[in-house]
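User: Design a sequence. Structure:
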């Protein structure tokens, strides 16, 4: 039997002796299982310090976490459980769920999520070279485990927000009930008593709600570049009635379509327009504007037009908006006015772009344009100090591009804008003198090909009773006879004379001009207006003479007013007759002189001397020819 254990004070060796034997005790790895002793005593930090393997550390952490869980310190337990790997993830989650500890479960999931993210970033840094302006590896290349934890955490956060909002709503009702003295409707006392509540409790709940929402928004911001979870998150937030968080997530993803659809669903058209204005320019923004243009123009016409006229929308294609603007004209005067304003803006931008591209022809003089419009009783807008006025009405010569229906890019279908403006101007009942429509058409004179559908514009003007514009369209399309006939049918003699002068100065054009003037003469002759016929003869610029007018005069017309013109014409004929006689006399004298010259030529002879040499070979003319000499064998 051992009797005693002693330690040598000199060398520190241990000795065990009994009645018969003496033993030296040699210590090897004395602290190998000391962690177990600390673990049994509940000193977990000391146990961790003495653990040598991962399995030992996991065992200590699991024991510590379970102890905290049993002590109902669930948040600390979740933090400890997140540090271990020996226990299954599912079993830990089920443990917290069975205990109805959602906050602790969320803490556990957050810790695990951060571990996964940290591991993904470390692996990405080790395998990929650094790239400038690159997204974090955890967001751009999320693992399936990260996606699962992300969705689960979002669901828990949303549930917490809903619970907090419900409690907040209840507290507000309680406080309102208490401030109202506990009375119900009509001041009658309440049949039940609400629990007591203080403003401090309400403020605490609101603070908790803001904190949870901040955490959720931070999580959504970090995971915004993962496309796989977009539809899931949208469905989750929408089904739980969390519109503010849904909009935040859509903004982070720059998902303009979702943002706009949300405003459309709530009929918030002005916020929708503000969001479009704040979004970065591009094809996506323009496509969404075209998509929602019918609703926006119907409910907010002025703000919609102001948005389209902003400089950031200068690349907007106007063609898809033309049907929207035309459809909206039936909604009222405001929509019609705003549609005209936007279409005029598009035309101004089109002309400015054409000038910048150098595709305009040589400018005509402003005086010529003023003369054209003055004959119609209109005038061009005044310019400021002789500088170019930024309007398509200022100088028609600037707009004479040789294009049919438009140009390139966004202006390839500019003809639709012109046609829409023609429709809106033609339907404007307040414009009795057709000033706006005529000004638009006058600005297009001189182009080799009209930038709009001429037959369509002509038909629509005829239907809407815009006869002066129809006359101008006839002339622009080269149908001068119809233009003159239309003007005469309207009783507008000045307009008819203006269109009769439009053909050029070529031989065929002069003949056409004369026919047009004769049409006017025939019309006026039916009215038995002698003075008008005389004025027409003078206004024709020498194309008409009195003899051209006589066939159109009836036998009952007195020609006393044409006495001077007839005498002038007879005198002119007399001068021409005398001129012809003089020419005939000159021809007769020339013929007689020619006959005398022919007779003198027949009787003329030349004397040559015997020694006269030849002008070509210089030998005497009458000498014998030189002898010929044979050459060769």
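Assistant: Done.
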């Amino acid at each position: 039997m051992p009797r005693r254990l002693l330690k040598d004070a000199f060398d520190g060796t241990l000795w065990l002796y009994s009645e018969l034997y003496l033993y030296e005790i040699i210590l090897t790895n004395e602290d190998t299982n000391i962690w177990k002793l600390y673990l049994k005593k509940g000193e977990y930090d000391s146990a961790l310090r003495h653990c040598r393997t991962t399995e030992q550390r996991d065992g200590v952490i699991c024991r510590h976490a379970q102890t905290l869980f049993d002590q109902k310190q669930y948040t600390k337990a979740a933090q400890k459980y997140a540090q271990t790997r020996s226990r299954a993830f599912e079993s830990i989650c089920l443990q917290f769920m069975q205990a109805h500890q959602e906050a602790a479960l969320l803490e556990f999931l957050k810790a695990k999520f951060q571990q996964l993210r940290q591991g993904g970033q470390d692996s990405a840094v080790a395998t990929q070279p650094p790239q400038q302006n690159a997204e974090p590896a955890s967001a751009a290349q999320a693992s399936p485990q990260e996606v699962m934890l992300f969705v689960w955490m979002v669901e828990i956060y949303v549930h917490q927000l809903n619970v907090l909002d419900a409690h907040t709503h209840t507290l507000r009702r309680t406080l309102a009930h208490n401030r109202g003295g506990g009375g119900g409707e009509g001041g009658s006392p309440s049949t039940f008593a609400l629990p007591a509540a203080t403003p401090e409790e309400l403020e605490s709940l609101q603070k908790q709600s803001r904190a949870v929402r901040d955490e959720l928004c931070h999580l959504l911001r970090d995971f915004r570049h993962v496309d796989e979870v977009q539809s899931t998150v949208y469905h989750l937030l929408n089904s739980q009635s969390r519109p503010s968080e849904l909009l935040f997530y859509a903004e982070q993803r720059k998902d303009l379509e979702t943002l706009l659809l949300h405003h459309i669903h709530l009929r918030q058209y002005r916020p929708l327009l503000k969001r479009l204005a704040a979004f970065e320019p591009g094809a996506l923004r323009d496509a969404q504007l075209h998509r929602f243009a019918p609703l926006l123009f119907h409910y907010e016409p002025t703000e919609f037009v102001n948005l389209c006229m902003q400089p950031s929308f200068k690349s907007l294609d106007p063609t898809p908006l033309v049907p929207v603007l035309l459809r909206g004209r039936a909604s009222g005067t405001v929509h019609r006015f705003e549609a005209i304003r936007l279409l005029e803006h598009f035309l101004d931008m089109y002309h400015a772009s054409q000038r910048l591209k150098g595709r305009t022809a040589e400018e005509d003089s402003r005086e010529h344009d003023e003369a054209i419009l003055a004959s119609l009783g209109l005038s061009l807008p005044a310019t400021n100090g002789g500088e170019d006025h930024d309007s398509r009405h200022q100088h028609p010569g600037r707009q004479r591009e040789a294009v049919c229906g438009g140009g390139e890019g966004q202006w390839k279908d500019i003809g639709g804008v012109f046609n829409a403006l023609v429709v809106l101007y033609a339907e404007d009942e307040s414009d009795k003198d057709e000033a706006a429509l005529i000004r638009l058409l006058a600005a297009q004179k001189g182009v080799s090909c009209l930038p709009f559908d001429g037959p369509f514009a002509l038909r629509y003007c005829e239907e809407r009773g815009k006869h002066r514009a129809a006359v101008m369209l006839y002339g622009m399309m080269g149908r001068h006879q119809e233009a003159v006939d239309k003007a005469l049918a309207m009783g507008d003699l000045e307009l008819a004379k203006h269109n009769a002068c439009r053909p050029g100065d070529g031989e065929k054009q002069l003949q056409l001009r004369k026919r047009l003037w004769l049409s006017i003469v025939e019309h006026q002759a039916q009215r038995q207006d002698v003075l008008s016929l005389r004025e027409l003869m003078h206004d024709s610029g020498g194309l008409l003479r009195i003899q051209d007018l006589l066939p159109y005069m009836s036998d009952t017309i007195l020609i006393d007013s044409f006495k001077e013109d007839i005498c002038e014409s007879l005198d002119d004929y007399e001068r021409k007759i005398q001129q012809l006689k003089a020419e005939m006399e000159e021809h007769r004298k020339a013929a007689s002189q020619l006959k005398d010259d022919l007779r003198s030529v027949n009787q003329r002879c030349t004397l040559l001397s015997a020694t006269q040499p030849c002008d070509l070979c210089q030998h005497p003319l009458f000498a014998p020819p030189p002898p010929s000499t044979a050459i060769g064998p």
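Residues 563-602 form the longest helix (40 residues). The chain has 28 helices and three strands.
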